[in-house]
Amino acid sequence: MAPQVTGAKRYWHLLSRFAAASVVATAISQLVFLLVYALGAAPVAATITAWLAGAIPNFTLNRRTWGSTGRAGLRGEILRYAIISVTTALLAALATHNAETLAQTSFPDTRSAQVAVVWGAFLGTYAVMFVIKFFLVDRLVFRRNR
Questions:
Q1: In b/e form, how buried is each residue of 107-138, taking b as 16+ CB within 10 angstroms?
Q2: Tens-place pLDDT, residues 13-60
């Protein structure tokens, strides 16, 4: 049996794996967002679609990171993760909606510029939430594995 990693080492280990899972989820959600929004969907619809596309692999990878296996505690983990994830998606939806208003005013005839501004708001929201989510996932979602 491997020795338990504690303290700062534990956090660096978790953070590196959390970051890797976030890269996978972010790549998926960013591609879905760009595709759906560029094809003409409203920013809120594109955000929700992209969130769903990234949230499922993110939860699965993070569950492994924190050592959760089996069905014990799964329902509570999903519920706590969903609350954090949905809150993040709502913040991103608000940011993209406001960014679209700004982009349409600033670049009324340039769809590519509008897409870039709205996408920047989407990506920026998730970048800010990365740090907050790490601590929430560690302290609330997978708390029994600490």
A1: eeeeeeebbebbbebbbebbeebeeebbebbb
A2: 889 999 999 999 989 998 998 999 899 999 889 988 998 999 999 999
Which residues, other chains included, contact 117 with Cβ-Cβ below 8 Å and sequence gap of 6+?
99, 100, 102, 103, 106, 107
Q: Has residue 144 got a pLDDT over 70? A: no
pLDDT of residue 126: 85
Which pTM value belongs to this model?
Answer: 0.75
* Among 96, 95, 66, CA closest to 80: 66
Residue 11 and residue 19 in contact, taking contact as beta carbons nearer than 8 Å:
no
- The domain locations on the chain are 7-145
User: Which residue in this structure is represented by tokens 């619809």?
Assistant: 45
| Ramachandran angles phi, psi of 142, nearest 5° | -110, 40
- Tell me how far apart the alpha carbons of residues 10 and 47 are, in angstroms, rounded to a whole number: 33
The pLDDT of residue 121 is 94
